[in-house]
Amino acid sequence: MQRLAQNAFGQGVRATPLQMARVVAAIATGKLPQPTLLRAWEGSAAQAPEACDLALDQGLLGLLRQGMKAVPETGTAAKTFKREYPEGRCRTFGKTGTALTRERGGGHGALYSAWFVGWRQSLGKDEPEIAFACALTHLPDAREHTGGRLCGEVVARILKQWEGGDAVAR
Question: What is d(CA 21, CA 158) in angstroms, rounded to the nearest whole number?
Fold first, then answer.
């Protein structure tokens, strides 16, 4: 029961940023996207594989989206977004997390991982524009190095550059 409880909030679960970006893209769209890493191949536009339709309960999905919308507006990433990207708060959906990576022992302190995953809606449209996942690992202090604070800052800055048309962010 203890393992199940810890897994329920992500402790002891392993995932890559790409896997988590796919998860949030599925929450945003109801379809599981197939990743494609190329924009073009030999001058021709690369075609992404079709996304798989998922049989998700729309009522529960709506509640999940509502909760994720609150994270950059009033939740664990709100202070960071207010400072770094206030104009994007109302279009960004997310989930932050901070997890223990290594216990104390052997003369070493505990280390943590910080996460922020989510998506941003298109300007003036009710559809996702980009999904994201930020993970920073082996951080020394869970109080200071949280997903909302550290990863929130990274994501907010990238989304702000993306919105401004900065080619580096794209």
Answer: 15
- Token pair, residue 136, equals 């920073």
> Which residues have a Cβ under 8 Å from the Cβ of 131 and sit 6 or more positions away?
21, 22, 24, 25, 28, 33, 117, 118, 119
Please tell me the predicted confidence (pLDDT) of residue 167. Answer: 52
- pTM (predicted TM-score): 0.83
Q: Map residue 152 onto helix, strand or coil.
A: helix
Evaluate whether the domain defined by 2-163 bears CATH number 3.40.710.10.
yes
Q: Which two tokens stand for residue 117?
A: 């995953």
Give the pLDDT means over successive 10-residue stretches in the chain (170 positions). Answer: 72 83 94 78 76 88 95 97 95 92 70 94 88 92 88 96 69
The residue extents of the domains of the chain are 2-163
